[in-house]
Amino acid sequence: MSVFQATTSAPVNIACIKYWGKRDNTLILPTNSSLSITLSQDHLRSTTTARADPTFTETTLWLNGKVEDIKSGGRLERCLAQLKKMRRERIEAKDPNTPKLSEWNLHVASFNNFPTAAGLASSASGFAALTSSIAALYGLSSFDPSKPSVSSPSELSLVARLGSGSACRSLFGGFVAWEVGSSPTGEDSLAVQVAPQEHWPTMHALICVVNDAKKGTSSTSGMQRTVETSALLQHRIKNVVPARMQAIEKAIKDKDFDSFARITMADSNQFHAVALDTAPPIFYLNDVSRSIIAVVEELNRVSYEKTGHLVAAYTFDAGPNAVVYTESRNVKQIIEIIVRYFPQVESSPFPDPFNLFSGSQ
Ligand code: 2P0
């Protein structure tokens, strides 16, 4: 008897231009474009196995070994419905002999190798891995380069987006834009690769785990409150992000680290300003986060005076953890400095544990 099962994994992505705000909460359509780097090493990944079987009495999802509720009309159900529709239309309708997997229940098991919901983009890798594993199970994506794929990564990014906005960017490696789109039905709000990882292989991301506890305000509810209450968000959407998207894409194409770093830090700071401009205000950074900003700013000031160039760029998502982008030649120096100023928890003067590991992007 045939077994219908597929396992894929997807990494976390870290945004340089932040997504914060939806214009459609059901279809997950953003208020602005965003751009991220997908991490390429094994530290921060979700791995998902999907299996279809006619004997399964219901569809079940396990997240890190625990059964998750599948809410009726919820995000997961919308992703599954879309993948089933693609399977029906693109495969089963064309070949009457092919098994009708779209009619069978699924068992889906997903594992994160890092803390869930700690501002480390677990929903991004999670929904990207879920989408790609079911797409592989359904024959929508081909792992054999000699066979044409019946769906492109950008098309699958539309499905992952229905699960979690930032997930659409984890369908690609390297440097990835999520285009805001203008259609009310969302078909042009998809991810595209700006450049593959090999384009700028010296770019590294240092992940500084300031606190791996579950975050206080979820991104979903936080950004909704921001859309409802922040005047600064409207300025950001109209007057800031479009020019920044163009400028950072150019910086990436030119491998211009100075411009990349300035834009990335400015956008992280504006995102946190917008969070603060929300009523009631949202605080994601803590004292350790702010100290990391001070250290990187000072490093860049000294480096700029000496060489005319910057050495590092910090960015923070919806939590206190820092990601520091730097190029290969500066990784050792940056790690040494961070560990000197933020010793590991045993001897740390700070209340929060501080762990650091590095990976190339
Ligand atoms: C980003 N974040 O661009 C930004 C920066 C957090 C700060 O994408 O509601 O978990 O599932 O679409 O994708 C977090 O938002 O929110 C996020 P939903 P998501 O990476």
TrEMBL record:
Domain Diphosphomevalonate decarboxylase-like N-terminal span(s) in chain numbering = 10-191
Q: Which UniProt keywords apply?
A: ATP-binding, Lipid biosynthesis, Lipid metabolism, Lyase, Nucleotide-binding, Steroid biosynthesis, Steroid metabolism, Sterol biosynthesis, Sterol metabolism
Q: Supply the enzyme class, top level.
A: lyase
Pathway involvement of the protein, from the record: Isoprenoid biosynthesis; isopentenyl diphosphate biosynthesis via mevalonate pathway; isopentenyl diphosphate from (R)-mevalonate: step 3/3
What is catalysed by this protein? (R)-5-diphosphomevalonate + ATP = isopentenyl diphosphate + ADP + phosphate + CO2
Q: Name one GO molecular function term.
A: ATP binding
Name of the protein in its database record: Diphosphomevalonate decarboxylase
GO biological process, alphabetically ordered: isopentenyl diphosphate biosynthetic process, mevalonate pathway; sterol biosynthetic process
